[in-house]
Amino acid sequence: MDLFAEIILDHYKNPRNFQILEKADLEGQDSNPLCGDKLHITIKVDENETISSFGFDGEGCAISVGAMSILSEEIIGKSLTEVENFENEALYDLIGVEISPGRVKCALLGLSLIKKLIKIYHEQKK
Amino acid sequence: MQEFKNIKSSFPIFSNNPELVFLDNASTSQKPQMVIDAINEYYTKYNSNVGRGVYKLAEITDNLYQSGREKIASFINANSANEIVFVKNGTEAANLVSYSMSGKIASGDKIVVTELEHHSNYLPWLELAKRKQAQFEVIPFKNNQLSEIDQIINEKTKIVAVTQMSNVLGIQPQLQEIMARARDVGAVVILDAVQGIAQKGLDVKAMDVDFAFVSVHKMFGPMGIGFLYGKSELLENMPAFMTGGGMIKELNELNTEWLEVPNKFEAGTPNPAGVYATIKAIDFIEEIGTENIYKHNVSLANALREKLAKISQIRLLGKADTSIISFTIDRIHPHDIASIFANNEISIRAGHHCSKPLMNALDLNATARISFQIYNNEKELEKVLESINEVIKWTSLLK
Ligand SMILES: Cc1ncc(COP(=O)(O)O)c(C=O)c1O
């Protein structure tokens, strides 16, 4: 696994959308029990459930922060349903480096939390 | 360190992984050939269940199982083999005691643990306190030692749980001080000897602890076997933890009578192969001597610590003269440090090491941890330093 990969390094150094949004429609936190990563996510959607803005903060390793930052750029403008169906492999492709089995949880920390928040959001709307 | 030059060849993991530098020994130790052979020998020559048969193999297994108890009793200086209860690991032992002692704890009583504890000697006591509405207090760890021992352990205290050696820092807290105070107030002391035993030995008589527990996989033995030591009178006065086969004398509909200690605490089919391998693991340790093992590990740790101390970006935790080094490096997560090491076939651990209370006390989420064992050597330190340099190079890209 290549931690030096340009994309990860860039996003780890300067995470995009690294701020918590006020009055978010979806909001939640999660942590990775293995390494103590912490993640706080906020999402705003428009009336069509399209993500209009996304913000996160937290503390973590290069893989978890890098993956979250990369994903954040990808999902703004997408609908919640599209994001719910976003495949893990698609995220690995975006990250561009091979994720060793021991680091899968780090890479997926953000995506899993987002999917969880979307599920809760839809359940509450019912 | 001369005398251990060839010891690596006793561990087949290294001939199968010639490049491997294994520095995650606080997590589990590698196994010498004689331990691995014992498991094979047991299943190929003696396999049968314990305490259930009259035929020859059953007799052999019973004898092996009993001789394991005796071996351990003499290794840890217990009064009798009946003070040794076999379990699957240290975690099970702590849970056993915490459940079986439930009846002795009432609301208003106090249970004390320390900030150095692994979750397995912390959570069972926290849960017991919750079940009984008892007070729960943690002895803080400050300036590399436990503090406020005498204030926190008071007349209300019924149980004190303490580790022989921290799995994060390698530090051995002040057991004597704790014992003295616990004796004053009549509290029972349970010692987590999981990290300590292979390096510092365990003398339950000299320490005078009431209970102690061990996972054999950290002392060159197999996984899936551990033991609990308990003073006879305490074990005899505790009810069974798990119930089932192999632990009962009488059963008439609703009436039960348990077997004597220690069988009372060993419900279900035990692990005689593991016990046989434990005997061999103790043989292995006794051949080298725990003092020599510890001396070797500490001298490697001190040598590395000295080198790491010269690198300004590194924050070293704990103190010298221990066999475990926990550290952090500015601007890089410990998990990423471990990944860079892993790329170079060096196994180190990153995370909270099942020690959240200590992480909170240190104001950290995680550390990188290097822990030594008898098969490590000075040449491996050079490889560690190469990886450290690579990490530092990486962090400089983050500026
Ligand atoms: C100090 C200490 N206590 C207890 C344990 C728990 O051991 P086990 O997981 O084998 O039950 C460990 C293992 O990491 C440890 O280091």
Largest sheet of chain B: 7 strands, mixed
Largest sheet data of chain A: 3 strands, antiparallel
Mean pLDDT of chain B: 96
Write the CATH homologous superfamily of the largest domain in chain B.
Type I PLP-dependent aspartate aminotransferase-like (Major domain)
Q: Encode the helix/strand succession of chain A as letters.
A: HEEEHHHH
- Strand residues, percent of chain B: 15-25%
Low-pLDDT parts of chain A are: none
**CATH topology-level name of the largest domain in chain B:** Aspartate Aminotransferase, domain 2
Radius of gyration of chain B: 22 Å
Number of strands of chain A: 3
Oligomeric state of the chains in view: heterodimer
Number of strands of chain B: 17
Protein architecture, described:
The complex is a heterodimer of chains A (126) and B (399). Helix content of chain A is 45%, strand content 20%. Chain A contains 5 helices and 3 strands. Chain A has a 3-stranded antiparallel β-sheet, covered by helices on one side. Chain A is globular, with a radius of gyration of 14 Å. By secondary structure, chain B is of the alpha/beta class. In chain B, strands 2-10-9-8-7-3-4 form a 7-stranded mixed β-sheet, sandwiched between helices. Chain B has a 4-stranded antiparallel β-sheet with strand order 13-14-17-16, with helices on one face. In chain B, helix 3 (56-75) runs parallel beside helix 11. Chain B starts with 11 loop residues before the first helix and ends with a helix. Chains A and B meet through helix 1 of A and helix 13 of B. The site of pyridoxal-5'-phosphate has 14 residues of chain B, from helix 4.
